[in-house]
Specification:
Distance between the termini: 11 Å
CATH class: Alpha Beta
CATH architecture: 3-Layer(aba) Sandwich
Radius of gyration: 17 Å
Order of helices and strands: EHEHEEHEHEEHEHEHEH
Bound molecules: fructose -6-phosphate
Strand order of the largest sheet: 1-10-9-6-2-3-5
Number of domains: 1
Low-confidence stretches: none
Number of strands: 10
């Protein structure tokens, strides 16, 4: 696992957007797995800026969702489908045809989850999966004690996660209890995992995930199993890392040709 400590969220966004641009240069139709929430917004903004500047061609890129609320009315502005269309697909100038997501409104949720795993495989698999991290260590919406081998399925949000996400809704009561999320096993199939964490509230979860034991109690620790996992953290999110100096020195000495 590579840990990169950046000065702030904007620097993290720029670094990861550059990695995506590099990927698309070699594989123009790459499938990008995108996360929602506040953390990845600087990545999407930096990538959209590169597109406007003509620094990267995203016209053949494809985008897929990591997770989705269950039970929000179709077109709800906070459904993750709406968020990804608004924050990623539209700013990059992509069409909805380039977008894959699970159906959170399906009558048969289990079938919708299985269909999404199949769709990802049929699309050739995810090339680069962006991840955020919950204050409880979740990735996607794999809450603590999710199976490390899990596939896309329905999960129940913890009270902590519902409270964390209440800022996107008018009240806590409106935050759904259930979600569809790519499983940890599904996430681990992506060719490159890139987790961005910013802010002091993520420091403990980051330290447990990167330096703690592999444990279902800390779902993001599953990144330790992946052969190409990159964790980008700002100074605040890095503040509980025991090996911070080592991570800084390693990245400072990294040959540029290696990229992320
Ligand atoms: C969202 C997702 C979640 C978030 C996490 C952090 O698609 O998968 O794991 O990444 O809850 O959310 P923020 O970035 O809002 O702190």
């Amino acid at each position: 696992m590579e840990v990169v400590i950046v000065p702030d969220a904007a620097a993290g966004g720029e670094l990861i957007a550059s990695a995506i641009a590099h990927l698309l240069t070699g594989k123009p139709d790459a499938l990008l797995g995108v996360a929602t929430g506040s953390t990845p917004l600087p990545i999407y903004q930096a990538l959209a800026t590169k597109v406007r500047q003509g620094a990267v061609d995203v016209s053949r890129a494809r985008v897929c969702q990591l997770d989705e609320y269950v039970g929000l009315p179709a077109g709800h502005p906070e459904s993750y489908r709406s968020v990804v269309l608004r924050e990623v697909v539209a700013p990059l100038g992509l069409s909805e045809d380039a977008f894959l997501g699970p159906d959170g409104g399906a009558a048969d949720i289990a079938a919708a989850c299985a269909a999404y795993d199949r769709a990802l495989a049929e699309a050739g698999g995810v090339d680069l999966q962006l991840l955020g991290i919950g204050t409880d260590g979740h990735i996607g919406f794999n809450e603590p004690c999710s199976s490390l081998a899990s596939r896309t399925r329905i999960k129940t949000l913890t009270q902590q996660t519902r409270e964390d996400n209440a800022r996107f809704f008018d009240s806590l009561d409106e935050v759904p209890h259930h979600v569809i999320t790519q499983g940890i096993g599904t996430i681990l199939e992506a060719r490159h995992l890139v987790l961005l964490a910013t802010g002091e509230a993520k420091a403990e979860a980051v330290a447990l995930s990167v330096e703690g034991p592999l444990s279902a109690l800390v779902p993001a620790s599953a990144l330790q199993l992946h052969p190409h996992a990159t964790v980008v953290v700002d100074e605040a999110a890095a503040s509980e890392l025991k090996l911070a100096d080592y991570f800084r020195a390693t990245y400072a000495a990294k040959p540029a040709w290696q990229h992320l």
